[in-house]
Design a protein that fits this description.
The complex is a heterodimer of chains A (438) and B (478). Chain A is an alpha+beta fold and 438 residues long. In chain A, 23% of the residues lie in helices and 40% in strands. The radius of gyration of chain A is 24 Å and the shape is globular. By secondary structure, chain B is α+β, with helices and mostly antiparallel strands. Classes of the chains: A alpha+beta (438), B alpha+beta (478).
């Protein structure tokens, strides 16, 4: 498809008027999706989709259209040329926009990583075979994702990835389950076996009578997966330039009242280690990294093309929330987590987080899956789900006891519209006085 | 769009199987917005593709493609046939016993004022006018208005000769003002923000678009200086803009039959409702009457047929507080052995139909708004949802609203900010003590209901009167 997009782009860019600029973004995906319930297949199929986004710009005016591609050059060209004509008509009547911003310097790139994906049919047979006897429910997603950028200034960027993401839960009874994930570009049966064995081992603890906790404050350990739920919520405005300049960020106390998190909290948007393309939809190259929080203090914002123009800063992202967030580890060894937790709650997963008081960055959410009551360093039994309501300024601030040295690389399982290319590298967090309310 | 050549092309490609269905979708969305007085680039997005289901000798699989040519169909069919072989070895469902659509038909949205009947210039001017009405004070630090139109044409045809054609038009307006003083920021939204209606531009007035803009800004300023919502156990009066969310999260999702059957346990979750509860479980007080109702033409999920081809008709899910029927489409009904509704829906051509909410409405009672307020000794009126969280069994919830008004001794008092409440679904609806009449009844909906693996965002409708609940745990911010 790279050649197809390159040729299509050349034709379309040659069709515009001298005073016009054309930006083209290609999104392609071929994905196999298999949905499991009771270790059987509920739904299985394949999705092949291709889209072309066209941005026509003239002076201070811009108009955007996205259309599906069929892959037949003549048909796609005809359709795209018609769309460009429609955009041109719009440019004639819309007002000027002072925030139009696109890359003027031409820098080509090509990033097409090798991979050894398994046959999805064989992988699904393998999963079901190895999980015999387990109530396994989840989703297999695999295949190729393509992204391309081209503009009438002559720039061309290409990004191709093939990956798999198997995300599943093994249920013991009612809502007691353990969640696991195996994602990457190189399939290894041994890793799957190891993860399924872990799921089996945890079943013995989950089978014990659940403990009903009373609302109150507890010492807790948040696994990297649980912490990832928090970080995903912070995507709603915590780090974006626009939300900071318009004072909508949930971290407003960090910028207005010099509130801070604990010194060991370092957050970085690490573009270079991410799975997303290193170019934006306006053709800008992303920097290697953007420091968001350093030593507990707010540092830089993520600025997309539009907002960078409005506020006179450099473009440093495609969208104003992290897509490859890295959080620094601490000095707590993973092997010591239960001992250091002592008596409290091991929170394997959080669920459905939302802001309960945005100005104080207070977040509510639920425990989920294999969250366990721990006494004197020993996992005793699962807990019935509990609602927490706590401020980030506490659990990553004055109540943060330690971060694990080991970090987990979490590949986003999201498949809204298309498979996500977001990821995060996070430690676990030991926290005291964590508030549960229901 | 003339679908026939595409359907004919598909028929040339599809092999001889026990059953096939083809769903073709042509979807166009146009979005206009003006932020802080600056018109953003107009954006249009088109989605067009085919979703095919093949059933053969105990296997069932799908293929979906944006390539509507013969080679595109052949590739999609080949993939589906490969998966069909795998599903035959590991099938959860007995596909030979699954019901098939049997009725052909058509449906079209009722549109009085077409989207294209107003020029682009006039729409942008309208959004500018809203922006002007929003920026009334230096403390308004951000403001915006948007208008979106979506047209979706869907054709479903099957190897049994069934053919269903439906065309929908949706309108998504909204405006917002953000006020700030120091480290205190409050957002107030209006004009339909976060909601959606079916039809044309005539639907804007029902959302108060554009006329509510100045009030939105004034209320944002009021909120910044307002005291926190008090804490305690008291009554809450929920307006339809919050009832929408309450119904959605703690009735809609728990009643989805695929959740009850366990399909969603890895993602959206399960349900505290079990199959044996239908027919006798007291879900709420006797005032609680909930319908699946595709008959309001302006409500977003009114349609003639769902995406599996089942005809849609109004039924009670909860009557006088008793649970009667789940939200389950034909496949789930077959699995569970009970009646459901026509709610197997897909967000686009590239995703399979699953059980979704559609129009899920709470039927009106007989109390005027004044009567609802007058009967409250100590409580808070809450309007417009802004925070939502509920457990994976859809029981323990916590919701927050933009706007609160104290109610004391039967009278509305001052404004409070960060009004929030929490509870448990299984208990909360039994504390429904008053239901507003038709004068308080409003049609809302959300374009953003997420569910399914692979994930799907779909639009659902919720209509409700204002309602009063007693003995609720209420609190504010900080």
């Amino acid at each position: 498809m790279e050649t197809y997009f390159r040729d299509l782009a050349q034709t379309l860019c040659a069709a515009i008027l001298p005073q016009e600029t054309l930006l083209l973004n290609y999104d392609g995906e071929t994905s196999d999706f298999v949905r499991f319930n009771q270790n059987k297949i509920r739904q299985a199929g394949n999705v092949r989709q291709q889209y072309l986004q066209l941005d026509l710009i003239a002076k201070q005016r811009q108009s955007t259209a996205t259309l599906p591609l069929c892959g037949d050059r003549a048909r796609d060209e005809t359709q795209a040329v018609k769309v460009i004509a429609g955009l041109r008509e719009q440019l004639a009547v819309i007002p000027d926009n002072p925030h139009i911003n696109y890359a003027l310097a031409v820098h080509d790139s090509r990033d097409a990583a090798d991979s050894a994906l398994p046959s999805p049919y064989a992988a699904v047979d393998d999963i079901i075979g190895r999980a015999q006897g387990l109530d396994l429910v989840g989703i297999w997603a695999s295949g190729q994702q393509l992204r391309g950028f081209a503009n009438s200034l002559g720039q061309f960027n290409w990004h191709a990835r093939a990956s798999f993401n198997f995300d599943w839960s093994v249920y013991q009874n009612s809502d007691k389950a353990v969640k696991s994930n195996y994602a990457g570009t190189q399939w290894n049966n041994g890793v799957l076996e190891q993860k399924l064995n872990y799921s089996r081992e945890v079943q013995t603890v989950l089978a014990r009578p659940a403990i009903k906790l009373k609302p109150g404050r507890y010492r807790v350990f948040l696994t990297p997966s649980a912490l990832n739920e928090i970080m995903t919520l912070l995507n709603w405005g915590a780090f974006g330039l626009k939300s900071h300049r318009t004072l909508q960020t949930p971290l407003i106390k960090m910028i207005k009242e010099a509130a801070r998190l604990q010194r060991q909290v370092h957050l970085v948007e690490h573009h270079a280690d991410g799975l997303a393309p290193r170019f934006t939809r306006q053709g800008f190259a992303k920097p290697e990294r953007v420091a968001l929080i350093e030593k507990g203090e707010y540092r830089d914002c993520l600025a997309n093309a539009r907002d960078a123009k409005e506020y006179g800063v450099e473009v440093n992202c495609a969208i104003e929330h992290p897509q490859s967030l890295h959080m620094a580890g601490g000095d707590l060894s993973q092997a010591d987590v239960l001992r250091e937790l002592g008596t409290g709650i091991y929170i394997s997963n959080l669920w459905y987080c939302n802001f309960s008081d945005r100005n104080n960055c207070r977040i509510t959410g639920m425990t989920r899956f294999a969250s366990l009551w721990v006494e004197n360093g020993e996992a005793i039994a699962p807990i019935d789900v509990m609602r927490f309501d706590e401020s980030v300024y506490h659990f990553l601030g004055d109540k943060l006891v330690a971060l694990t040295a080991e970090r987990e690389h979490i590949l986003d399982t999201g498949t809204y519209e298309k498979r996500s290319d977001a990821s995060a590298l996070l430690p676990g967090a030991l926290v005291e006085d964590f508030a549960f309310t229901l | 769009m003339n679908w026939q050549p595409i359907v004919d092309e598909f028929k040339q490609c599809v092999p001889a199987v026990d059953f096939w269905s083809l769903r073709l979708v042509d979807d166009e969305t146009e979005t206009l917005s003006v932020r802080e007085g600056v018109a953003q680039p107009p954006a249009s997005a088109q989605s067009r593709g085919a979703y095919m289901t093949l059933v053969h000798r105990g296997g069932m699989a799908y293929g979906a493609t944006s390539d509507l040519t013969a080679p595109g169909f052949k590739r999609a069919i080949e993939s589906a046939m490969n998966w069909l072989e795998v599903t035959r070895r590991h099938a959860l469902l007995n596909v030979d016993k699954l019901p098939r659509p049997g009725t052909s038909g058509r449906y079209r949205s009722a549109v009085a004022q077409p989207w294209h009947g107003m020029t682009l210039n006039d729409k942008l001017a309208l959004l500018q006018q809203v922006n002007t009405a929003l920026k009334i004070d230096p403390a308004i630090v951000y403001w915006e208005a948007h208008l979106r139109h979506r047209r979706t044409a869907v054709v479903l045809c099957t190897s049994d000769g069934v053919s269903i054609e439906q065309t929908f038009h949706y309108i998504v307006p909204g405006c917002a003002a953000v006020a700030n003083r120091g480290a205190e920021t409050q957002m107030r939204t209006g004009g339909g923000w976060g909601s959606v209606r079916q039809g044309g531009l005539e639907q804007l007035a029902a959302f108060g678009f554009p006329d509510s803009a100045r009030q939105v800004a004034e209320e944002a300023l009021t909120l910044v200086d307002a005291p926190q919502c008090p804490s305690g156990t008291m009554s809450v009066l929920l307006t339809p803009s919050q009832m929408m969310l309450q119904i959605h999260e703690s009735i809609g999702h728990p009643l989805e039959l695929d959740r009850i059957l366990g399909d969603e346990r890895n993602y959206a979750g399960r349900s505290f409702v079990t199959l044996d509860m239908f027919g006798h479980y007291q879900y709420g007080s006797e005032l609680l009457n909930v319908t699946y109702d595709p008959s309001h033409p302006e409500e977003v999920a009114s349609y003639g047929f769902d995406d599996d081809g089942s005809p849609a008709q109004r039924v009670f899910l909860i009557r006088n507080g008793v649970l009667e029927r789940p939200l389950g489409g034909s496949i789930s009904q077959s699995r569970a052995g009970m009646d459901g509704v026509a709610n197997a829906r897909a967000c686009d051509w590239n995703r399979p139909p699953i059980d979704r909410m559609a129009n899920l409405n709470l039927e009106p009672g007989d109390r005027s708004l004044q009567e609802l307020i007058a009967a409250i000794e100590n409580g808070v009126l809450m309007d417009t949802n802004r925070s939502w969280s509920i457990d994976d069994s859809r029981n323990k919830f916590q919701f927050g609203c933009e706007w609160g008004r104290l109610i004391q001794d039967g009278e509305l008092k001052g404004v409070v900010k960060n009004p929030s409440y929490r509870g448990v679904s299984a208990e909360f609806w039994r504390n429904l003590t008053q239901v507003g009449d038709r004068g308080t009844f409003e049609i809302w909906g959300t374009p953003y209901c997420g569910k399914g693996e692979p994930n799907q965002v779909i639009q659902v409708g919720h209509a409700s009167p204002a309602c009063v609940f007693s003995n609720v745990e209420v609190f504010g911010g900080a």
